[in-house]
Write a structure and sequence with these properties.
Elements: E1 7-13, E2 17-26, E3 29-39, E4 45-46, E5 49-50, H1 53-67, E6 73-78, E7 83-91, H2 95-109, E8 117-125, E9 132-141, H3 142-154, E10 158-164, H4 165-176, E11 184-190, E12 195-201, E13 204-211, H5 215-226, H6 230-237, H7 247-254, H8 256-271, E14 280-284, H9 293-301, E15 305-307, E16 315-316, H10 326-329, H11 334-343
Parallel strand pairs: 1-6, 3-16, 6-10, 11-14, 14-15
Antiparallel strand pairs: 1-2, 2-3, 4-5, 7-9, 8-9, 11-12, 12-13
Helix pairs in contact: 4-11, 5-6, 5-7
Length: 346
């Protein structure tokens, strides 16, 4: 009797849309067997906070129904102000002892009562200073995790694991691209209202931050300047209608915080001798295809800058995309793909 094929669902609840992917483990590697993208009502989710719970639940349910996905077990993720990712130094310990000690360390580094957060950690370096090690500390408010899990359950799914958006993007990129231990790569995932930024070297995230900017930031600027509706502005940014607007100008203004954040992070990493300099930028998310974003970052940081394809090494049937360009859809699925890859062992 043949065993059941191993499959996994990744669910990305963004600020403007919900994305779900189903991956299957095959002898040739992971394969995309199903996916769906469903728009959310404007302001259903604002700054990571769920403002219209029922509409988000309905969007997830509609997506499950329209895709015909049967599996209910999902890997999902959170991001935003209630998620803290920080590198810390602590006494050199084994994994088990470190798990106990990190609770005490968190009290010094997390701006919340540790009883109110969920903690996790990853040992980055074991030989930093005298009898010290470098640890990546991750903390998320329990309330946010519980709200997120309850919402997923209400939509009829079972949340098996809750990750962090930036880590899911990194997972998707490392599964599809080759990086050397010397490469210093920035992953930038641009959503509707939030951008996840991480700087990674040799598989270790040296900087992680969520910025309150995204495609909607540019869309709102377009609306104000040219008296457009929100839908009209979004279509302009997506290139769905012809226009004569100077989109790169709006993009440049909106991306000021992103450029400043990267400048400061890279300067710190160079000063601390953790990274010599940036070698590559990979963009993902629905906002990655806004005109001018790739060119702006490539010119500013003078490194190869590309819109990522998280399906580069994931097989799929072209018919799944119903005539659409898979490489154009793929960047919006980066978080969901990275989440699903957790389950299929990548």
């Amino acid at each position: 009797m043949l065993g059941k094929k191993k499959s996994a669902l990744g669910l990305d609840i963004g600020s403007s849309s919900v994305k779900i992917v189903e991956l299957e483990e095959t002898p040739q590697g992971p394969a995309l067997t199903n996916y769906g993208v469903g728009d959310l009502l404007p302001e259903a989710i604002v700054d990571g906070e769920i403002m219209d719970r029922q509409s988000v639940v309905d969007s997830i349910r509609n997506l499950i129904e329209s895709t015909g996905i049967k599996d209910k077990r999902v890997v999902t993720a959170v991001s935003g102000r209630a998620v803290i990712v920080k590198k810390i130094l602590m006494d050199r310990l084994g994994e088990d002892d470190a798990r106990e000690a990190v609770q005490w360390e968190a009290e010094q580094h997390v701006p919340y009562d540790v009883s109110d957060v969920v903690l996790d950690f990853q040992i980055l370096k074991t030989d930093v200073g005298p009898k010290q090690m470098q640890v990546l500390l991750v903390a998320a408010k329990k309330e946010m995790i519980n709200v997120h899990a309850d919402l997923v359950k209400e939509a009829g799914l079972v949340p098996e694991l809750i990750d962090v958006d930036a880590f899911a993007v990194q997972n998707a990129m490392e599964a599809n691209y080759d990086f050397t231990p010397e490469d210093v790569v920035t992953f930038i995932n641009i959503g509707g209202e939030r951008t996840n930024v991480s700087i990674v070297k040799d598989g270790a995230p040296h900087f992680t931050k969520d910025l309150a900017l995204g495609g909607n930031t540019v869309a709102e600027a377009l609306q104000r300047e040219h008296a457009l509706s929100h839908d009209e502005a979004v279509k302009v940014l997506r290139g769905e209608v012809e226009d004569t607007y100077d989109i790169p100008q709006f993009v440049q203004v909106a991306c000021d915080d992103l450029v400043i954040t990267l400048d400061r992070a890279l300067a710190y990493l160079q000063t601390s001798s953790e990274a010599e300099g940036l070698t590559r930028i990979l963009l993902s998310g629905g906002g990655s295809r806004m005109r001018g974003v790739k060119e702006l970052l490539a010119e500013r940081f003078n490194v190869p800058t590309d819109i990522a394809n998280p399906l580069l090494r994931v097989t799929y049937e072209p018919a799944l995309f119903e005539g659409s360009d898979a490489s154009a859809v793929a960047p919006t699925l980066a978080v969901a793909i990275g989440l699903a890859l957790r389950k299929v062992g990548i």
